[in-house]
């Protein structure tokens, strides 16, 4: 009687398995317990395709500061402007205040534009500066008692804020349009006339000359608060043009206020 030695399963066999089926050209090899991933191969006469099955690391929806900087670097000017216009929707130019998060977002986009300024010496290309510009954002605000005294909380609405620049005369006219409920003053406006002179490759000095309010009914409303109105909107002082192209201008005054204007007729 002959004895037959039975071998116990090897350690390798406990980790993997090879399964064959008669008449089938497919062979499945499965290796597990390799960094908690499974590696499978499907073998057929025509191709061998590896398939990796594993857990994909979860990614946070919030970008890190470094990732944000990298994304900012590749943004084109057209995309930045598009995002800026989107951020400015519904905030009424920021005149009556905005949330800090929104302000930070706008400031970031403005900074990105300034880093890509196509006209680094704007005062040397005055033809690009002249014409009419409309304010679409400013960090100047009219809040609290100032807004109440000017009637901008109740019956006076602030319309377009325009900047008309006459290069030949060296003059600027700042126009604030108002609508007054009940008086139907659709064309009421406050005009500030100033002169300017070039003081550097990117900045000018603005000097106040005069101001008027028309029609008389509107003047009567603001007469008591003319100094307040001028204190807020008088453009006098240093103005640096930090970004300029065919249809958009960004500037900063001597107090650090930011102004974003678009060209208009």
Describe the structure.
With 265 residues, this protein is α+β, with helices and mostly antiparallel strands. The chain has 2 domains: 20-53, no CATH class; 67-264, Lipocalin (Beta Barrel). It contains 8 helices and 12 strands. The protein has helices at 11-15, 65-74, 77-87, 100-115, 126-129, 144-149, 216-222, 226-233; strands at residues 16-19, 27-34, 37-43, 48-53, 131-138, 156-166, 171-180, 188-198, 203-214, 237-244, 248-253, 258-264. The protein has an 8-stranded antiparallel beta barrel with strand order 5-6-7-8-9-10-11-12. Strands 1-2-3-4 form a 4-stranded antiparallel β-sheet. α3 runs antiparallel to α4 (100-115). The longest helix has 16 residues, at 100-115. The radius of gyration is 34 Å and the shape is globular. Residues 1-61 have low confidence and may be disordered. One of its GO terms (biological process) is plastoquinone biosynthetic process. Belongs to the PAP/fibrillin family. It comes from Eutrema salsugineum (Saltwater cress). It holds the Pfam family PAP_fibrillin. InterPro entries: PAP, PAP/fibrillin_dom.
Largest sheet: 8 strands, antiparallel, barrel
Strands ordered across the widest β-sheet: 5-6-7-8-9-10-11-12
Specify the helix fraction band.
25-40%
CATH class of the largest domain: Mainly Beta
SS summary, helix count = 8
């Amino acid at each position: 009687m002959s004895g037959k030695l039975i071998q116990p399963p090897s350690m390798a066999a406990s980790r993997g398995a090879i399964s064959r089926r008669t008449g089938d050209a497919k062979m499945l090899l499965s290796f597990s317990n390799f960094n908690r991933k499974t590696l499978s191969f499907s073998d057929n006469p025509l191709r061998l395709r590896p398939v990796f099955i594993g857990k994909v690391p979860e990614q946070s929806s919030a970008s890190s500061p470094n990732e944000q900087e990298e994304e900012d670097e590749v943004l084109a000017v057209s995309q930045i402007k598009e995002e800026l216009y989107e951020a400015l929707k519904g905030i009424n130019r920021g005149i009556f205040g905005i949330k800090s998060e929104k302000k930070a977002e706008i400031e970031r986009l403005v900074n990105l534009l300034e880093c890509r300024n196509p006209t680094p010496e704007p005062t040397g290309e005055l033809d690009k500066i002249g014409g009419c510009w409309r304010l679409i954002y400013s960090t100047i605000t009219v809040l609290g008692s100032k807004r109440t005294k000017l009637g901008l909380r109740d019956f006076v609405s602030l319309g377009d804020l325009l900047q008309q620049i006459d290069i030949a005369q060296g003059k600027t006219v700042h126009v604030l349009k108002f609508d007054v409920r009940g008086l139907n003053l659709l064309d009421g406006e406050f005009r500030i006339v100033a002169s300017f002179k070039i003081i550097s490759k990117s900045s000018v000095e603005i000097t106040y000359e005069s101001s008027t309010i028309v029609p008389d009914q509107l003047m009567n409303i603001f007469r008591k608060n003319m100094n307040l109105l001028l204190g807020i909107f008088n453009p006098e002082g240093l103005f640096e043009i930090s970004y300029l192209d065919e249809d958009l201008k960004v500037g900063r005054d001597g107090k650090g206020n930011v102004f974003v204007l678009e060209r208009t007729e």
